Amino acid sequence: MFTMQLFNQNPNKYQLFSKSMKKTVMAAIITETQSIKEAVTSINTIELNKFSRLLSRILQKLHLKEERTFSEEEEQKLQSALSLDKQDLSLVLDTTAFILEQAVYHNVKPASLKQQLEKIHLSPEKAEAFCQAWTAVCPDVVEKVRQRIFAPKKLEHVGWQLNLQMAKSTQAKLKDPHAVLELGVRNEDSESVVEKVFVEFSHQELLQFYNQLETVQAQLDSLT
Amino acid sequence: MSSSHAKVAVGASKDSSFLGGRIPSEIEIMAKQLKDLDQEMFRKILKAVVSAIEGKDCREAMKAIAENAALPEERLSYVVAGMYRLLKEALRIPTSSLKQEVFKEDLRELRIPEEFITDFASVVFGNRRTALEAVATQQGPRLPSLKDFRWRVDVAISTSSLARALQPSILMQMKLSDGKGHRFEVPVSKFQELRYNVALILKEMNDLEKRSVLKIQD
């Protein structure tokens, strides 16, 4: 109602109003701070195809939290390849990563990203490179980041074994099916160590467990 | 020679007692000790041994028996040891394989007095049998089993990396029978894998139970 009135009174004003609304939303992604200005200056000096390759490399590793995108040696090679000193290089890398992370966070459209980059005075060709790289991988990266869970321990692997118990020291002549579930749980801090949890189930116990899993599934289904 | 032939003729398909080819020494010694034991005393000891098999603490009962009995300690210990072994061995075998008559016959071979045989038989084949079998199922080597299972479904609305995440995840907490607890997060895809595998095992168990290998008579 309010907007209709506004439109009728002054159509141009309304357009300006909505445009400024859009602008404020867009500006939230990247603000032109001093370090951004410096980074942009450095980025604009880099050759276009080298920069495109840099972009795709950073995008590949964006969803991985702790890993460094480039090793020490790689960074040194980059320094000479891009004719940047160490400080400038790390500023360029950090800023590029930051821009991409913000793009992921807000899930921006490529066109909107381009506009933002031009606003912070990135050269049009570089902005275009960003745009293209982003268009290519955007949904995947967002999905991967979405699937990242914060948890000290995560279930990674499920294995099992079905045994037929024929006898034990306390009972002879059994024919008891028993299942052993092996759950591989990875600890957040230890990248390589997977803790194996073994749980044994009789037929009855397994049935109970399955019913509980079904309840969980019903809950998941009710979410969608 | 002739007695074993006679046994075969009668149709007994075994040539040794349910205790195996060699009778355990504690049972043989017990058999001798039972000769002039009073039935009252025997029943008291039997009761204590049965509750021990059930897993209950029977130290009080044993102390009481040891104190006021006219029985020397050494004799008591032989009797207890023999009884325990005998009952454990008998309870190990399912009732489909060991019939009461055969059991009694084997005990007669050991020259155990008839009244005591009846008492033994009433423990092994009586209505306490199911309780004793349940204890035996619980014992024996086992990997830890699931004592307590709790879960939680969360939806991550927003994270530091994504303003609108809307990603469900599951938190599971398992307490195992060895006392250890495990708490871990399960991504939805892994949960589906877990559920699928459990269903698969259940199906295989069902197939296994129907298969003819299980229908083999002992």
UniProtKB/TrEMBL annotation, chain A:
It comes from the Eukaryota. CDD domains: Commd10 (cd04758). Coiled coil: none annotated. Pfam families: COMM_domain, COMM_HN. Residues 154-224 form the COMM domain. PANTHER family: COMM DOMAIN CONTAINING PROTEIN 10 (PTHR12333), COMM DOMAIN-CONTAINING PROTEIN 10 (PTHR12333:SF0). This is COMM domain containing 10. It comes from Oncorhynchus kisutch (Coho salmon).
From TrEMBL, chain B:
GO terms for cellular component: nucleus. Pfam families: COMM_domain, COMM_HN. Residues 145-209 form the COMM domain. Belongs to the COMM domain-containing protein 5 family. This is COMM domain-containing protein 5. It comes from Oncorhynchus kisutch (Coho salmon).
